[in-house]
Amino acid sequence: MKKIVECVPNFSEGRDKQKINDIVKYISSVSGVTILDVDSGEDTNRTVVTIIGEPEIIVEAAYQGIKYASEILDMSQHTGTHPRIGATDVCPFVPITNVSYDECIELSKQLGERVGNELGIPIYLYEKSAQNDYRTKLPDIRKGEYEGLENKLKDPRWKPDFGPTKFHKKAGATIIGCREFLIAYNINLNTKDHRLATDIAFELREAGRSKRIPNPKSKNLLDGEIIRHQNGKPVKVPGMFKDLKGIGWYVDEFNQAQISINFNNYKVSTIHDVFDAACKLAEDRGVRVTGSELVGLIPLEPLVMAGKYFLKKQNRSIGVPISDIVECAVQSLGLNDVTDFIPKEKIIDYAVEKDDRKLMSMSGKDFIEELSTNSPAPGGGSVAALLGALGAGLSSMVAALTHEKKEMFDRKPEMDEIGVEAQILKDQLVELVDEDTNAFNSVMNANRLPANTEDEQKRKVEAIETANKYAIEVPMKTAELCIKVLKLSNMLVKKGNPNSVSDAGVSAEVAFAGVSGAYMNVLINLTGIDDNGYVKIKRKAIDDLLLEAKTLRKSVFIKTIKIIES
């Protein structure tokens, strides 16, 4: 498995399209790097570029972007609403696939050292890469911003981790490090008053705010008098959410104020909880949340978490396809409020995935047409997996229909569990439709290997044995999953919506056909295995699965007919 790292350099330019495009061109000139997203803001005068690639590639791509930005951007002329310290303000590394935090820390140091030495730009390490506790947080390093950087560099406490202490007038400084997956998120308000957005942001963010005496003439706490300790320092009140940063600003482009939020850990403080809290705080101040906006990309998980949360609030089933869950999250959070939210472009899991599911990307008609040709693949194994997936889909449907029935309110939690499991089984079996064909092709490829020498003959025999075992394991998995579908069907016949009992019965029938088909595929592939011990184990396992499937199918059929005829 490849190592995949995400890098999100933030450039202090959001207005000059030509400069932005040129920076992106320099980044993309590095072979193997993928540009996932380019998000520019005129008011912030900032562009966030999201790239992924293997470790060495991503470091080179980031360097090229930083280098070119230092040549064409002049921080002495820069203005914008977003805090910044340099032409490339911050450049974080985030582990995505098969990469540890320690590896990303090392990448950040490699880049920092190179940029500092070769480009003469002061470099500060932050978050997990930080060498000093007081330099961990981004706002602490940015304090004073670009305008205060020259004096900051004279302070020994703020000696850069890499590069010179000399002030770089054009490029400023750059902050580099390894961090958790950060979600940049803006909540939109129906007001132009950025102070109201700031007031709400202070309530939400972990750092909280200075305690104030409420002003009876204003709903904005910022208008109240600060309460201080005897030493004159403000009394601090912590905010509502951990690992959350927030500020308020006005966006001229949208003609409204926004609460700008960074989630440092979306599992600790969830998007949906923060959104709901912002809605309540806004209402308390006489304004309304109109929607929200994601800057850059977001993992699938927090949107699934949000979608399930809102589905439950709406008293709807969560046992639905992931696409429906995501759609619920998008609608509930108002992610289409100011810009179009396109899942394939904004959700990182979708943006990086390559759809290798040749068969399952076909229409039903095209699949059947392909099946009916003289090609041996797809064949019975793929059809068996498809039958199981169809059974799982039917089980999910029955669970959802039961969940919606008001007379069965007490069964909602159980139906949710069944629906969720059915969706998981459906997705797994869909993957096996193509996997079975891949397994068959592996056997064919192994049989085509040359066998002209003794070594080649040995390698060919080993390859055929390995491929045949692979071709056995796939239908074995199909059978195992279809058994689980049968068990769900059995539960649904007993506890599901009686008006849909025939659908539960059909679910069992097609799932049983999936087991039977998988059984035959296991047996025919066992004939190509010389390992008698392996053959014996697999034959017993598949025989046991078929026997269990027969028992479950009979039980479901009898119960289904009884309910229909009662």
General description of the model:
By secondary structure, the protein is an alpha+beta fold. It folds into 3 domains: 4-178, Formiminotransferase-cyclodeaminase, Chain B, domain 1 (2-Layer Sandwich), CATH 3.30.990.10; 183-352, Formiminotransferase, C-terminal subdomain (Alpha-Beta Plaits, 2-Layer Sandwich); 378-565, Up-down Bundle (Four Helix Bundle (Hemerythrin (Met), subunit A)), CATH 1.20.120. It has 17 helices and 15 strands. Strands 1, 2, 3, 4, 5, 6 and 7 form a 7-stranded mixed beta sheet that branches. The protein has a 4-stranded antiparallel beta sheet with strand order 13-14-8-15. It has a two-stranded antiparallel sheet with strand order 9-12. The relative contact order is 0.07.
List the helices and strands and how they pair.
Layout: E1 4-7, E2 10-11, H1 17-28, E3 34-41, E4 46-53, H2 55-72, E5 88-97, H3 101-119, E6 123-127, H4 138-142, H5 149-152, E7 174-178, E8 183-189, H6 194-204, E9 209-210, E10 212-213, E11 225-226, E12 236-237, E13 244-251, E14 256-263, H7 271-284, E15 289-295, H8 300-313, H9 322-333, H10 343-346, H11 348-352, H12 364-371, H13 380-404, H14 412-447, H15 454-495, H16 501-526, H17 532-565
Parallel strand pairs: 5-7, 6-7
Antiparallel strand pairs: 1-4, 1-5, 2-4, 2-5, 3-4, 8-14, 8-15, 9-12, 10-11, 13-14
Helix pairs in contact: 1-2, 2-3, 6-7, 8-9, 13-14, 13-15, 13-16, 14-15, 15-16, 15-17, 16-17
